[in-house]
Amino acid sequence: MGIRFDAVTVAYDGNVVLDALDLTVAPGEVMALLGPSGSGKTTALRAVAGFVRPASGRVFLGDRDVTDLPPHRRGIGMVVQQYALFPHMRVEDNVAFGLKARKVPRAEIRTRVAEALEMTGMGAYARRHPRELSGGQQQRVAIARALAIRPDVLLLDEPLSALDAQLRSGMLAELARLHRELPDVSILYVTHDQVEALTLADRIAVMDKAKLRACGTPRELYRAPTDEFTASFVGGANLLPVTVGATGVRLGEAELKADTAGAAVGARATLCVRPHLVGLGEGPNRLTGTLSEIQWRGATHRLYVEVDGHRVMADLRELRDPPGLGDEVTLHFAPDDAVLLPAGVGHD
Amino acid sequence: MLVHSRKAKWAVWALFLLLFVPLFALPLLVVLGASFATNWSSVLPSGLTAANYQAATRGEALQALTTSLVTAVTASLLALAAGTWAALAAAALGKRHRKVMDALFVLPVAVPSVVVGLAILVAFSQPPMLLNGTRWIVIIAHTVLVTAFAHQSVSAAITRLDPAYEQAAASLGARPAHVLFRVKLPLLLPSLTAAAGLCFALSMGELSATMMLYPPDWTPLPVLIYASTDRGALFTGSAIAVVLMAATLLVLFAVSRIRTRASYR
C-alpha cells in the first residue's frame, strides 16, 4: 500500500513546520525523508501515523483518506529512535501487543510472535525484559513488534541514531534484508544521515525549512542534484558561483568547461562538483589556489584550496607526498563531473 | 555532600542529631515508653505493665482500629480512583484548564481541615443527601482531604511519562482504553502505589475534620486516643497510639513491597 501526501501543511501556534508537502510513496518502495533537524521530516512521518493533525491537506494510505482517522485505526507499523518498548512486558508480550489489541486468535499470536522475532534474530530473547537487552537488541525487538501486525506501511523515525556507528551499519544491512523479505511493505524512513538514506532508499525526499527541496533516486540526487541545498546535504559538494558563457562558465578569471544546456549566456549560476571527483595536477578544468587546510583521513586526504576567494574541497587518495600549507596547488575536474545549478542563496 | 573536612562532617552530624533526636525521635520514644507505664513521675516511666496494650487491642480500641483501617483503605482507594481519573483527564486538557483543575484539587489541602469538616457536615446534614450520623460522612471527608495528594502525585507522574509509549501502543492498533489499562496504568503503577500509601497514612492520622463528623458507632483510632488522653488516661492513650503507628507502618511497608515489584527501571 502506498502513502500519498496531498498538500499537507502542519502548523503549531501559527508556526508552519510542514509546508504544503506533496509526496507519493509507491507500494513496496523505501522512501527516505532526509533533512537537518527542524526540516519537518519527522512531522511528515507523524502526520502519517496520526499523531499530528494537518492544518490543511490530506494524507492517503493506498486509496483510503486517513487524515481524520485516529492512530489506532490506521494499521501502520512504527519504530522510533528511543525504541519505546513497554518496560513492564517481556519481549514476547511486547511483540504480541499489537496482535492482542487486534484480537488475533491466541494460537496465531504465538506463531506470529515467533515468526517476527525469528525474522529480526531475537528468537532466543523472547522471555527477557527490555531492560535486559542492549540498545541494538531493543531496536530489533521494536522492529519485530512493528512487523508482527503485518503492516502495509512501516514508519521508521531515525531508527538507528541511538546506536553506535558499528551497530548502525550492521542494522542498516539488516533493514535492507528485511525489506527484501517483505517486498510489499512501503517504508517511510526519516533520517538526517545521508549514508542511511543513500544505502537504503529507493528514493530520497530532501527536506529543509518545512519544505520539500528535491525528490529522486539516490543516484539522481547525487549525480545530478537540482538545487544547492540537496547538492551539499546529499554527499557534500563544492558550490562555485559562476557566470555562464557561450561554451562554459567563468569562475572569477578562470574559464571552465561545463554543460551549460538550458542556461542563458551571462546568467549567474552555481557549479557543483563533488570533492572526490576533483583531482590534483593539470587537467581539463584547472583551478589554481593556495592550500589552506589539509586533513589526513586514513585512506584519503581532504584538501581545502582557496581559489580566488572560494574554498574548494578535494578528496584525494592518500598522497605519498602531500603539499604543505600555503603551497600553490593546481586542481582539475572533468567537465562531465560538474553540474550547473540555478544560482541560489550561496550566490551573493 | 558539600562538606569535606572530617571536622566539619562531625559538626554537621552533631547538629543533625541535636535537631532530629529531640524533635522527631524522642517524642515517639516517649510515647513508646509511656505505653508500657502505669506511672511517670520521675525521669523514667515506672510500674511497667502490658495492661495498657490489653486495653488497646480489644473491645472499643479494637473496634476503633478496624474503623480506622476500613475508613483509610476505602478513602484512599476512592481518592486514588478519583485523583488518577482527574489527573488523566487534566493531561488531555489545555494548559489553562489544567491549571484550574489543579487549583480545584488542591483546595481541600489549602483550606484548614476543620473547615472542610464543617463544610461537609453542613452540606450533608439535610435531605436529599442526609449522610450525617453514618460512617459514610467520615469516609467522604477523608476522601476529600486525601484526593488532593493522590491527584498531585499522579499528575506529576503523568507529566514524566514519555508519550512515546502511548503512541507506540496506539500505532500498534490499541484503542485508547486498551492503551490506558495495558500501558499507561501499569507504567504509572509505582506512583499509584506511592500515592495510595500517602493517602492511607494521612487518613489513618486524620483527627480535626473527623472530630466534627464521626457518629458514635464509627470512632476512628485518633478520636479514641484524643478521648483517652482528654479524660486523663495518658498511658492507655499512648498504647493506642503505638497500635495506630504500628498498623500504619505495617500497611505502608506492605505497599512499598508492591512498589519495588512494580518499578521497572
TrEMBL record, chain A:
Superkingdom as given in the UniProt entry: Bacteria
Keywords: ATP-binding, Nucleotide-binding, Transport
Keyword Ribonucleoprotein: no
InterPro entries: AAA+_ATPase, ABC_SmlMolc_Importer, ABC_transporter-like_ATP-bd, ABC_transporter-like_CS, Mo/tungstate-bd_C_term_dom, P-loop_NTPase, Transp-assoc_OB_typ2
Domain ABC transporter: residue ranges: 3-234
SUPFAM superfamilies: MOP-like, P-loop containing nucleoside triphosphate hydrolases
Molecular-function GO term, any one: ATP binding
Database matches in Pfam families: ABC_tran (PF00005), TOBE_2 (PF08402)
Protein name per the record: ABC transporter ATP-binding protein
Organism, scientific name: Streptomyces viridiviolaceus
UniProtKB/TrEMBL annotation, chain B:
Chief subcellular location: membrane
CDD domains: TM_PBP2 (cd06261)
PROSITE patterns for the chain: ABC_TM1 (PS50928)
Record flagged with keyword Membrane: yes
ABC transmembrane type-1 domain residues: 65-255
Spans traversing the lipid bilayer: 69-91, 103-124, 136-158, 187-214, 234-255
Keyword list, A-Z: Cell inner membrane, Cell membrane, Membrane, Transmembrane, Transmembrane helix, Transport
One Pfam family from the record: BPD_transp_1
Subcellular location: Cell inner membrane; Cell membrane
Name of this chain's protein: ABC transporter permease
Native organism: Streptomyces viridiviolaceus
